[in-house]
Specification:
A: 71% helix, B: mainly alpha
Chain lengths: 320, 287
């Protein structure tokens, strides 16, 4: 932890102030929650005005833009306390919130862990949004994971310029697919009345953070290439140092602000997982990939159906 | 038994040596720190990339040196006339911020302090200037090897990432390079052989230092890369500056179309409408 030892006096004071505020917030949180619950119990049972989600979305988008601009100014000036917070405090904060929050939510509010969506009722808008988005995200997630777990293999693969180009362009195309899917999904959520009924404000935050993450990733891929190679040699050692509880922020502090924004929003996503629909990736039915077919037996009188008179619709039971 | 020193003398020697220990240890640490953090651009006795530092501790105050070492650009922007003058004298080459704490900078300054006074320094630089350096010769084989090392066709012996990961060089024989770090097309003109090989041997930039911390570039590879960069600089006018915008839009757009096509093909037998339109209508009526 040489970084902490070398921190000048004012930086140490700022660290102490931040730590104090965090501790105070931690203690204040139960009180705030209790007060809110009491207000709900004692207040009139009138349903509040429906939320205007497009406005919420635009306001959050504007706020994200303002935060991004502020962070950019700070990172460009290379303010030490900001780098310390982003790359040394935030990762542990985010991981702690993620672990405690998701375990708490799964144990106590297990049936809420869902993406609250249904593809039984409409298909077209969901299909062309969800498919490119989720496949793109899976590709990008595992791409980052491989570079984190096996950096040497990525560098070895990139030792032929053509292979480097193939990897970069494939990842870029999947990034574009993810962005396209996300935009279609946002349009669906904001225009479909049924989907709006199961929407909450946190969904808008999810969209804004995802837009920040994907757009910053695409900007990094284009403007700070070739990311697949330098991620493996500079960010992997940093991320590993974080997981080894001996963070070395020198290399990451020297990165351009776009890369820093991408890392910042990634930590932010990890931190808000327990409070949002992001939770659903933890309970994704992965076993569907290898479970056998399910045999569905309709418990009806087959002869009556065949005769086609007793069955109220006059149709045979078919899958579709 | 003439080789055995007198016990008393041994004791006296030990005490003297013990007394010297902290001082020499400081200077030795200073030397190590200097070589690790400054050696890419500075040597004592002559100019490398940066100026000769002989006698610098006599010329400038300790506070001044501390400020300049920690963040030269911040110091120059603050308007210090000496700092601005040094920056201009050295062709406005930016010195990177050195991540050392106060005590470590003091150790480096203690080491630099052992190289005498400005008067001696003047003679030292004079002799250094008069002694011609051995001319650097690059062969065609060096240039070819350097080019292959640069774009990764030939892997670095310690398996570090290829230069093209972060740097671009405009060369007809190379694909468009990285844009994370500086464009190196004209670097040989700015830094010369000594500067390039110095930086490759002990990178002073944090991201580059992290990349090659466990995969150092050998002296031979540094020589070959310098040969390639020299050639790239002399032939820079032959190659127009290139942009990756076309590559990105073509492959990105084409790849996106391919992904959408594959998804559509794979799920071609999907249910196109809703399972029960009437369920949807009923639900909408109940809102």
């Amino acid at each position: 932890m040489r970084f902490l030892q070398t921190a000048p006096a004012n930086e140490t004071i700022a660290m102490i102030v931040i730590a104090t505020v965090l501790v105070l917030l931690l203690f204040a949180l139960p009180t705030i929650l209790r007060a809110r619950r009491m207000a709900v119990e004692l207040g009139p049972m009138v349903r509040s005005q429906p939320v205007n989600y497009p406005i919420v979305f635009l306001v959050m988008l504007a706020a994200a833009g303002a935060v991004t601009y502020g962070l950019k100014l700070g990172w460009d000036e290379n303010i030490p306390i900001l780098n310390t917070f982003t790359f040394l405090v935030l990762p542990y904060l985010a991981l702690a919130i993620f672990l405690i929050g998701s375990i708490y939510r799964y144990m106590n509010r297990g049936f809420q862990v869902s993406s609250l969506s249904s593809n039984f009722l409409e298909r077209k808008k969901l299909f062309w949004g969800s498919q490119p988005f989720h496949y793109g995200l899976l590709f990008l997630f595992f791409g980052h994971l491989i570079a984190f777990l096996f950096p040497a293999s990525v560098i070895a693969w990139n030792h032929m310029p053509v292979r480097l180009l193939i990897l970069e362009m494939t990842a870029f195309a999947f990034g574009l697919a993810t962005l396209l899917g996300l935009l279609l999904l946002i349009r669906r959520r904001l225009t479909n009345r049924r989907v709006l009924m199961v929407t909450n404000r946190m969904d808008m935050l999810v969209y804004v953070v995802l837009i920040t993450q994907i757009v910053s990733g695409l900007i990094v891929a284009y403007a700070n290439r070739w990311g697949s190679s330098w991620f493996a040699s500079t960010l992997t050692p940093y991320l590993r140092s974080v997981f080894a509880f001996n963070p070395d922020v020198a290399a990451v502090s020297a990165m351009p602000w776009t890369v820093k924004l991408h890392i910042f929003s990634a930590y932010f996503i990890v931190a808000i997982i327990p409070f949002t629909r992001f939770m659903h990736f933890l309970v994704a039915p992965v076993d569907y990939l290898w479970r056998g077919y399910q045999l569905v037996i309709w418990n009806w009188n087959r002869r009556m159906i065949r005769q086609g008179k007793a069955w109220h619709m006059g149709h045979r039971a078919r899958n579709h | 038994m003439t080789t055995m020193p007198h016990p008393g003398r041994l004791l006296r020697m030990s005490i003297v040596l013990l007394g010297l220990l902290p001082a020499t240890a400081g200077a030795q640490d200073g030397e190590t720190l200097f070589k690790q953090n400054c050696g890419a651009c500075h040597v004592i006795g002559r100019r490398l990339v940066g100026p000769d530092l002989t006698g610098v501790t006599e010329k400038r105050s300790k506070e001044w040196l501390h400020k300049f070492i920690r963040s030269s650009q911040t110091f120059i922007k603050s308007g210090d006339p000496d700092a601005v003058a040094v920056f201009k004298e050295n062709n406005e080459l930016i010195m990177t911020d050195i991540n050392l704490d106060e005590a470590q900078i003091d150790q480096v300054l203690a080491y630099l302090g052992t190289f005498g006074k400005p008067a001696e320094a003047a003679t030292a630089t004079a002799t250094a200037d008069t002694v011609p350096e051995a001319p650097i010769t690059y062969t065609d084989a060096d240039r070819a090897a350097g080019r292959e090392l640069f774009d990764g066709t030939r892997a670095l012996s310690a398996r570090g990432p290829a230069c093209i990961s972060c740097h671009n060089v405009n060369s007809a024989s190379l694909m468009v390079g990285g844009t994370l770090a500086k464009d190196l097309t004209e670097v040989h003109a700015r830094m010369g052989h000594a500067g390039i090989t110095g930086i490759l041997g002990a990178p002073p930039f944090p991201a580059m230092a992290s990349s090659y911390a466990n995969a150092p570039i050998t002296a031979e590879e540094a020589h070959q890369l310098a040969a390639f960069l020299e050639e790239a600089n002399t032939r820079r006018t032959e190659v127009p500056a290139r942009s990756a915008a076309v590559t990105y839009s073509m492959f990105g757009g084409g790849g996106l179309a391919l992904i959408l096509l594959l998804i559509g093909l794979h799920w071609r037998r999907r249910l196109k409408g809703s399972v029960k339109q009437d369920i949807l209508d009923r639900q909408l009526r109940s809102i």
